Amino acid sequence: MFIMSEDSQRTQGRDAQSSNIMAGKAVAESVRTTLGPRGMDKMLVDSGGEVVITNDGATILNEMDIEHPAAQMIVEVAETQEEEVGDGTTTAGVIAGNLLGEAEDLIEQDVHATTIVEGYHEAAEIALDAIDEQISEAAVDDEVLKQVAESSMTGKGTGGLTAESLAETVVEAVRHVESDDGVARENVTVHTQIGASSNATELVPGIVIDEEPAHEGMPTEIEDASIAVLDVELGVRTGDVDAEYAIDSIDQLNAAIDAEESEVQGYAETVAESGADVVVTTEDVDDRVSTFLANEGILVFENVGSSDTADILSATGATRVGTLDDLEEADFGKADRIRSANFGDDDLAFVEGGAAAEAVTVFVRGGTEHIVDELERAIGDALDVAATALASGEVVPGAGATEIAIANKIREEAAGIEGRKQLAVTAFADALDVVPRTLAANTGQDPIDALVDLRAAHDSEGRAGLITDGEDVTIDDPLEFGVVDPADVKREAIESATEAATMIVRIDDVIAAE
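RESULT FIELD:
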C-alpha cells in the first residue's frame, strides 16, 4: 500500500535534524563576515547578470537563491528583523546559526530536542532581562540619535560621505516627522539619483517625484504654490465608439476646427481663471492647452501615476477633482515651493514646504547605481533605528558589549537550573559569544583572546566592547565612544533567532514531494 507518492523523498530522525541544522548554519555563515565596522561586502550576481554589492544582511539573504526550507527560515529571521526594527539583520542571522550549531552538539550528546527548546526559551527570557539592565540612563536626545544612526551606518558603503555627516541628515529627517502621536517613519522617503557625488545628498522638506513639465516654456519654479490635482483630460473629448463624420464643404471643416479650438480654449481658460499656479493631472494635456497655460505662467504635470498623485495629495492637502466644473479654490493644495530640475536624462519635481512639511525626502546622490543603491540601504536602516530609538527612548551599548553582558547573566542564572536543560541554557550563552568573536575576527584580532579580554573587562568595569577607531582596536566602554544600538534591535534579534532555531531543532522528519 502506497501512502505517499513514489517520487516523494523522506528524511527522518538524526539525519533530518543534521540536514536542517547544517543548512541553517551555512546561511548564517554566508553573512558572518559582513558584521561590524570592518565587515566585508558581498557581490551577488543573478542569472540575468544583475550585480548587487552590499554588506546588508537582509539584502544578501534575499538576493541569494535559497531552496532548502530550513535555510529559508534563517532568511525569514532577517526579514522579520528588517521589518520590525530595520537593522540588526546580520546579528540575528548569525545568532540563529550559532544556536543551531550549539544545539547540534547537544543532540550528539543525546540531549533531547524538547529539552534544548525549553532551555533556549528560558535563556531567551534571561537575555531580555539582561538587555533591560544594559539600557543607558542618558536621555535619547539628538546627540544620542546621531550616535545610533552613525553606529548603524559605520562599515557600510556611504560613498564619499562619512557616517557622521549622514547621521545628521538622518536625525533631522526623523525629528521632522516626530509628533505627540509618535514618529511617522512612513513620512520619510529616500529618493536616489545617479549623476553626482554622494556629497550632494540633501534633505528635501517635502516630496520628490519623477515628473517633468508638460511644456518646455513653463516656469521651473513657483513659490507659494496653489496646486490643483485633476482626473481630467485637458484636450478634445473623444467618444468610446469609433465613428466617422462626413464633411461636405470647407465651411463645415472650419466650423469643426473652430469648435475644437473653442473646446480646448475653454479648458485652458477655466484652469487659468481658477487661480491655480500648478496643475497635476492623471490624464493627457493637449499641446495647445499646454502652450496657453505656459504663457499664463502655470506649471503643469500630465499623465502622473497613481502613486505619485497620492503622494502629492497627501503632501499638499489637495482634493482630487474629476471635472473642471467642480474646480474650486477650496480643492487646492499648498506648498511653499514647487520646482522642476533636470538630472541628465531624468526630470524631477520637488514639492517643498507648506502642507508638504509633514513629509521629508532624503535625496541621495551618487556616481554609480551601485553606490546609490548601497547608500539607500544604509540610510534606510539608519532612519529605521533612529526612529525606533526615538520612539522607545531606550539604547544599549554596541560593539559586542550587550552580547557579552547577556551571555554573562545567562551563565550566572544557568547555575540555578536543574537537569539537562542547564546545558541548553549554557549553550545559548555560548552561541551569543559569536557576535564579539566575529567582530574581533573582522577587525583582524584573535577571536579567542579578544573574547577573554572582553569578559575580563566586563567583570571589572561592568561594560566592555570592541571599539574600532581607524586602524586601532581597543576594549573600552562603548557608551563613552558613542557606539550605541536601540534596545529593541537587540530584543528582536534574540527573539527571532530563538524562534527560528527552536523550530528547526524540533523537526525530525522531512517529506519532500518531487
